[in-house]
């Protein structure tokens, strides 16, 4: 396979713009999914009967092909970024909701009792004790959701909203392998960079884990 490095050099600006759009389309749904999953996970942990139906709904949504969801939402949101981001947000829930629940479940009962004995109310205990302990598991789910979302965004180009998916489809139409390879490599690099940033965020939010590892 011959790569036209000159073409890549001449189109650095457009590839960069598409990469930034790709990130926005991919990561905003993960953020929205996290904002939804945190309260849903807390409620599922508080009332166990709520967890099975919530997980079932999230998994059913994930089972629907992305293109089918795009076609459904396009009737309401048109050819806009929302048509891509809403389905990706729904997809993220199947990963994030169980990880939030599992993260909260990882907090041992003696820790909860100790926090209560120190005068922590339910909300303060959740924010100051339970969620910080749950961070590693929640971040692990966020990493999976983010990488998956970065990959799926390219499909959105079928409705004109795909970031680097534009270059993949355009390269296919023109039978120009360089454009396809450049976009694919950039997508992989975006996924790796996002994953590395999330790992760094986890380490910053869990300084006690670093101290324990060092000891």
TrEMBL record:
Q: Which Pfam families match?
A: BPD_transp_1
Q: Which InterPro entries match?
A: ABC_transp_perm/SBD, MetI-like, MetI-like_sf
Q: Record keywords: Membrane included?
A: yes
The UniProt record lists the ABC transmembrane type-1 domain at 19-198
Q: Where in the cell is it found?
A: Cell membrane; Membrane
The cross-references to PROSITE patterns, in alphabetical order and at most eight, read: ABC_TM1 (PS50928)
Q: Which UniProt keywords apply?
A: Membrane, Transmembrane, Transmembrane helix, Transport
Q: Does the keyword Transmembrane apply?
A: yes
What is the protein's membrane topology class?
Answer: Multi-pass membrane protein
Q: Where are the transmembrane segments?
A: 20-43, 55-76, 88-108, 129-160, 180-201
Query: Cross-referenced PANTHER family, in alphabetical order?
Result: GLYCINE BETAINE/L-PROLINE TRANSPORT SYSTEM PERMEASE PROTEIN PROW (PTHR30177), OSMOPROTECTANT IMPORT PERMEASE PROTEIN OSMW (PTHR30177:SF4)
Q: Which family does it belong to?
A: Belongs to the binding-protein-dependent transport system permease family.
Name of the protein: ABC transporter permease subunit
